[in-house]
Design brief:
By secondary structure, the chain is an alpha/beta fold. About 30% of the residues lie in helices and about 25% in strands. The protein has helices at about 70-75, 80-85, 85-105, 120-125, 140-145, 160, 180-190, 210-215, 230-240, 255-260, 270, 275-280; strands spanning about 20, 50-55, 60, 110-115, 130-135, 150-155, 165-175, 195-205, 225-230, 245-250, 255, 285, 290-299. The longest helix has 18 residues, at about 85-105. It starts with 17 loop residues before the first strand and ends with a strand.
C-alpha cells in the first residue's frame, strides 16, 4: 500500500543517507486533477509527494509510491486519448529516434521495445527493416497498437525473458523513471541483448539546466515518476548493470503549441477557441527540457 516515511532507504544503493530535495507539491497552483496521473500525458507538475535525493549515489526518488502489483494495475488501466491528438508530433519524435538507432545499428536485426504505448516507434522501426516486438501494460494502448498491426506483449513474462542473448537492440523511451527498481529491468535487458547489443534509454535528468532553474516547478516532477537521475547517476547505473556508454545527447521531442497550452491551467482557454486550436495543433517544434537520450552497449 501507499506509505510515506520520514526516513527512507535509497532504492538503488540501499543507503539511508538521503535528504529532502523537495517537500510535497500538493499546493502547486498549476496542478490539474482532471488528468489520469499515470497516463503519458499526465498533467504538468502534479507531484503530490516528497522527493528525496541519496547523497551516496545521487539518485532522487519519490517517498510515497505504489507497490509492484498496484503499479501494474495503474498502468494496465491507463486510457490516454490526448496522446492520440498529438500523433503528428509523436511520429516526428520517433522518426528521429529510429534514425539515431539505425546509425548505431546499421545492420538492424531484432529489436525489443519495453513500454511501447500505442506502437508508433515499433511501426516506424518495422518500416526501417527492424524485426521489432514490444511490451505494453495498458490494454487501451495495446488495442490502439493492434489497429496499426503491431502486436504487443502485455508483460515482460517468460516468453520474452527466456530469449537470452537474442536482441540486437532494446529500447526504453520514458520508462525507467516509472519503476521502483530500475536496475532490475536494466539487468534483464543486459541478459536479453546479444553481446555488443545496443540499449537506448530516454529519461529526465534533474541536474539539467531546465530542472535546476525551475526546481520544484520543473514540469516532470510527476506522481508517476518514482525515480529521478542526474547525469552521473544514470551513467553509473548503466555501468553497474554491464553497459558501456556510447552516446549521451539531448532528446528531441516534437510537440504542438496547442499541446503545450493544454498543460497549463491558466492557458487552457486558448485551446477552447476552435479555429486557434486547429492552427496551433499543426505547428510543431522540438524541445528537450531536461530529457536526455543515452545509448549504451552490452559489455
Amino acid at each position: 500500500m501507499f506509505s510515506e516515511n520520514s526516513k527512507v532507504k535509497c532504492p538503488i544503493c540501499g543507503e539511508w543517507s538521503s535528504e529532502y530535495l523537495f517537500s510535497n507539491n500538493k499546493y502547486n497552483p498549476f496542478a490539474d486533477t482532471h488528468f489520469t496521473h499515470y497516463s503519458c500525458t499526465s498533467s504538468i507538475n502534479h507531484n503530490l509527494y516528497s522527493i528525496m535525493k541519496c547523497t551516496n549515489c545521487d539518485i532522487a526518488f519519490q517517498t510515497q509510491k505504489p507497490d509492484e502489483k498496484e503499479l501494474s494495475q495503474l498502468y494496465g488501466n491507463v486510457v490516454d486519448n490526448l496522446y492520440l491528438q498529438e500523433e503528428k508530433g509523436r511520429y516526428k519524435t520517433f522518426n528521429n529516434a529510429v534514425k539515431n538507432l539505425n546509425k548505431l545499428c546499421p545492420e538492424k536485426g531484432k529489436l525489443l521495445e519495453i513500454g511501447s504505448y500505442t506502437g508508433i516507434f515499433l511501426e516506424i522501426a518495422k518500416n526501417n527493416q527492424w524485426h521489432a516486438e514490444g511490451v505494453e501494460l495498458s490494454s487501451w494502448a495495446r488495442n490502439i497498437a493492434a489497429s496499426r498491426n503491431i502486436s504487443l506483449y502485455s508483460s515482460l513474462d517468460d516468453s520474452i525473458l527466456n530469449k537470452v542473448n537474442h536482441f540486437d537492440s532494446i529500447i526504453m523511451w520514458d520508462v525507467i523513471e516509472h519503476l521502483t527498481h530500475p536496475q532490475d529491468i536494466l539487468k534483464k535487458a543486459h541478459k536479453l541483448l546479444k553481446p555488443g547489443g545496443i540499449l537506448g534509454v530516454s529519461t529526465i535528468i534533474i541536474d539539467s539546466i531546465s530542472a535546476s532553474v525551475l526546481k520544484k516547478y520543473y514540469p516532470f516532477y510527476l506522481d508517476m515518476h518514482l525515480i529521478y537521475f542526474t547525469k552521473r547517476s544514470l551513467i553509473n547505473i548503466l555501468k553497474n548493470t554491464g553497459f558501456e556508454i556510447i552516446e549521451f545527447k539531448r532528446h528531441k521531442r516534437y510537440v504542438s503549441i496547442s499541446y503545450i497550452l493544454s498543460k497549463f491551467s491558466i492557458l487552457k482557454n486558448i485551446n477552447k477557441i476552435t479555429f486557434l486550436r486547429k492552427i496551433l495543433s499543426n505547428i510543431h517544434f522540438f524541445c528537450s527540457f531536461g530529457v536526455r537520450d543515452i545509448y549504451a552497449r552490452k559489455i
